[in-house]
Amino acid sequence: MKRKWISLLALLFVVGAGIGGIKIYQKAATEHQYGIIPKEAKKVDEYGRVQYTISVINEKGQTTFQTFTTIKQLKEGTVIDLFVRGNEVRKYDIITKNELPQRVKSVWPTKERKEEEK
User: Superkingdom, according to UniProt (predicted)?
Assistant: First the structure.
């Protein structure tokens, strides 16, 4: 009986360590990219999904373009945090400009910064 309990505890430990390892890997492999939803969007299908291609800034201050699809059209000017792994958008969060990392704020589009200063 004692041997069964030890085996069960060992199995639970191995499964827990595996799940924890996967979560740590996913967090380490995910890059945050920040952008603003533009006016232009492309309808993808009859279900109302919308595709955006936007200019984004990563946490290092580097800019690039990212394409992703949403299930509904987002409001123009919305600030968005894309969770990117392997150049694929896994999910996104809508955030405020105040939630942007400091390094991203310093290279945020100049047009946006000029409007904020007014």
Answer: Bacteria
